[in-house]
Design brief:
The structure is a single chain. By secondary structure, the chain is mainly α. Helix content is about 45%, strand content about 10%. It has helices at about 20-25, 30-35, 55-65, 120-135, 165-175, 180-195, 210-220, 225-245, 280-290, 295-310, 315-320, 360-375, 385-390, 395, 410-425, 430-440, 440-445, 450-455, 465-470, 475-485, 495-505, 510-529, and strands at about 15, 50, 75-80, 85, 95, 100-105, 115-120, 325-330, 335, 350. The strands form 4 sheets. It has a 3-stranded antiparallel sheet with strand order 5-6-7, covered by helices on one side. Strands 8-9-10 form a 3-stranded antiparallel sheet, with no helix packed on it. Helix 9 crosses helix 15.
């Protein structure tokens, strides 16, 4: 018997095989066959069967609605199946039990188990008429609404796309499975948008002009969609068509289709923005720390989440999936285990605490000590959900199962929002912590080895990633630097030493130091002449 499908939400853009559906709903192949008989629509009539996520959602939403609708006269509730069934007339009979009223009894068409329900004398007459004439009675339901005779299958909806499209999308989905799930979902969302724009046409009929029309559609969508979304969709479609033209049955497609998704730079140009900084300043960070509420256990957890993000430089998903045993307070090290945490590119690493404000480290240390006092172990989540923190008795219970981390990063983002609101500053996302750590790198790192270690601690393969993505100069800082160019500033000590050496005739003519000193001397004379 399969588990209830309530609460299970398949991803609408994905295509699922029978095995995927069996795993998703924890059910057997026969149940899926019965679902198809009851109105679940495969993408086509070919084998093996494939099902679109949106169709699974539609079917089960309908089944959920039907489950809680009052039974009509001809419907029975089969408890083992968990569904409504309508037996055929030849298998339906009436039982008149002395002292126990009238019962309608029949076998379930799906599982062959006996189903029964109590009926009144009036309804008994109607059922007997149905059994004798094989004609659905035109009665009203005992409780509410008109009777709906017959099996009551889910009415099929018009196809959104051809089955061949769904099958090649399924293959592309398998091809992209080497990437993170979010990446796959983003590619599928772009594919579905392109498919909808072209009204579900067969991909075998694609031409370069179709790609060009969609490109124009994307450009016109700037404003409704962000530039980032538009750029990503164009890139996703270019990658898909580049893969598509190499697949069997699609090799006759024009190989230049992918080039037609390239967006013109003029269409993607940004207007100057007043603020480009997307991370807190050091003063704002200190304000977040000092203003963070800490009266309740949940508030102290939120404060520790923000502290951990700035101490570890972890992404929000990694922070949400940390366990208590991941943190070594004595060595100030975090062990990021990709087999147990949600880490980008599944890359395990050790991360040393970054040298940020000492109060931040104190907040996290206090939180860990509080968890240990509550009875948490190394296998428990570093940031338990509200359910556990609202009832700490469940934590102290022994024995108990380990407290699992959050399934998503929503709790981390919620903590940042609460702390920013308490500090009365603009919202900074959890990822802003990585940008902040990139912006202060030069304040601590004086050698190339230190800069390389800082980058590796952020999880970057090389320093270029840190410099280009996380060490951006804000507009305010850029203005300070250039205003400084116009102000008199003391000459560096090294230059002063060179000038003195030149004046004392200690430099050998023709050497680089000699030419450098002569140039400095000329510049100094021209500035103050």
């Amino acid at each position: 018997m399969s588990r209830s499908y309530r609460g299970i939400r398949p991803k609408a853009n994905r295509v699922h095989s029978v095995e995927d559906v069996m795993e998703l709903y924890d059910t057997c192949r026969n149940t899926i066959t019965n679902w198809v008989k009851g109105g679940l629509r495969p993408v086509d009539h070919r084998q093996p069967q494939l099902f679109r996520g949106s169709e699974l959602k539609r079917f089960h939403d309908h089944m959920h609605t039907m489950r809680y609708r009052p039974l009509s006269l001809l419907e029975f509730k089969c408890l083992p199946c968990g569904t409504r069934v309508t037996p055929t007339p030849e298998k339906l009979f009436i039982s008149r039990l002395h002292g126990r009223g009238l019962w309608a009894i029949a076998p379930c068409p799906s599982c062959e188990r006996i189903v029964r329900k109590v009926i009144s004398e009036t309804l008994c007459d109607e059922l007997e008429f149905y059994i004798e004439s094989n004609t659905a009675p035109g009665l009203r339901d005992e409780n509410k609404g008109a009777l709906q005779a017959g099996i009551g299958k889910v009415e099929p909806l018009p196809l959104l796309s051809l089955g061949d499209n769904e099958r090649i999308i399924y293959e592309y989905q398998l091809y992209g499975a080497r990437n993170d799930e979010k990446t796959v979902d983003a590619h599928l969302a772009s594919l579905r948008d392109f498919e909808t724009f072209h009204t579900g046409r067969d991909f075998r009929s694609l031409k370069p002009a179709d790609a060009a029309r969609y490109r124009a559609h994307l450009i016109a969508s700037v404003g409704t969609l962000s530039r980032s979304t538009v750029q990503h969709r164009a890139a996703h479609l270019a990658q898909f068509t580049r893969w598509l033209v190499e697949q069997d049955g699609y090799r006759k497609l024009n190989k230049t289709i992918c080039d037609n998704f390239k967006l013109p730079k003029s269409a993607m140009a940004h207007a100057p923005r007043d603020i480009v900084r997307n991370w807190p300043t050091t003063d704002e960070l200190r304000r977040m720390i000092s203003c963070a509420p800490a009266a309740a256990l949940i508030q102290r957890r939120d404060r520790a989440i923000v502290a951990a993000s700035f101490l570890f430089g972890t992404r929000s998903n990694a922070t949400a999936s940390l366990r208590l045993g991941s943190v070594d307070m004595e060595r100030r090290v975090v062990v990021q285990d990709a087999t147990r945490m949600r880490i980008k590119n599944s890359k395990s690493q050790k991360t040393w605490w970054f040298p940020v404000d000492s109060e931040i480290g104190k907040m996290l240390t206090e939180w860990i000590e509080e968890l240990l006092e509550l009875g948490c172990t190394a296998e428990d989540a570093l940031f338990p959900s509200d359910h556990y923190l609202a009832n700490t008795k469940s934590i102290k219970r022994s024995p108990r199962a380990a407290i699992e981390p959050w399934d998503t990063d929503a709790g981390v983002r919620r903590a940042f929002r609460r702390i920013c609101e308490a500090a009365d500053i603009a919202y900074h996302s959890p990822h802003s912590a990585k940008h902040y750590l990139g912006s202060i790198r030069n304040d601590f790192c004086k050698t190339s080895e230190q800069r390389r270690a800082w980058s590796q601690n952020l999880g970057h393969e090389n320093e270029i990633t840190t410099e280009t993505r996380y060490q951006k100069v804000s507009d305010d800082r850029q203005g300070e630097i250039f205003n400084g160019f116009w102000q008199d500033s003391p000459m560096p000590v090294e230059d002063l030493v060179l000038l003195v050496s030149l004046h004392e005739h200690e430099l050998t003519p023709g050497t680089p130091d000699f030419y450098r000193a002569r140039k400095l001397s000329d510049e100094w004379k021209s500035r103050y002449s």
